[in-house]
Amino acid sequence: MHQSIQQHIIALEIAALERWNNGDPDGYLALSSLDVIYIDPFFEQKLEGFKALKEYYERIRGKIHVDHYELLNPTVQLMKDRAVLTFKHCSYCGEKVYKWNCTDVYQLNLQWQIIHTPWSLIENR
Amino acid sequence: MHQSIQQHIIALEIAALERWNNGDPDGYLALSSLDVIYIDPFFEQKLEGFKALKEYYERIRGKIHVDHYELLNPTVQLMKDRAVLTFKHCSYCGEKVYKWNCTDVYQLNLQWQIIHTPWSLIENR
After folding, report:
1. What is the pLDDT of residues A70-120, one digit of tens each?
2. Is the ipTM of this complex over 0.95?
3. Residue B30: what are its φ and ψ, rounded to 5°?
4. How far apart, in Å, do the first and last CA atoms of chain B sit?
5. Prediction pTM value
6. A77 at interface of B, judged by CB pairs closer than 8 A
7. Contact at 8 Å (CB) between A116 and A40?
8. Among chain B residues, CA nearest to A75
């Protein structure tokens, strides 16, 4: 039972991520809850709520193009109707590779939704 | 009821963070679950489990000294026995200021424990 929910969560993420990496935020928008909190290294303040997230995603729609990506070493910590997914995401754009630590906290409402999404860059040192 | 749990979570975090900022990881160790997952920008891979976290914390025990800090704009997303705390953490060390996005996912076992802790640096741009 737990195994299949974990696989389901990872499949949801991969489907959204593949669209994201082609400039299409609609996969993540469809997964995001009304009270979603979004965090990334380029915002001084978190984005709170679906409306703020959608406004941001609309601004960058079509601007992200990843040649290929790797979703590495995913872990799902599952407890009842919450699941914490984390994975390493490497996106390759021409000569550049961007390495991210990604966490998405999912909650089962009518469907599994992302309520908290802190993504961060891995520092090269 | 929810309000007081949220205040309780924030108080737990502040108590651990104040010790952390004086080189003492024991506050966070006391809060961490056996299956805790730790993520920061300087690790290529997440740390999985209390034992791995404790080994890391012991290596840096006594090495962190923050002159003063700010815990800004905390949010707690609470649902039953899970709570997602996020806040901005500015630590001032001499002339330097380090700005972090901090998320700690708490779970109520016998007590509230941290099961997932992705911290990340805010990029200055």
Report:
1. 999 999 999 889 999 999 999 999 999 999 999 999 999 999 999 999 999
2. no
3. -65, -25
4. 41
5. 0.91
6. yes
7. no
8. B37
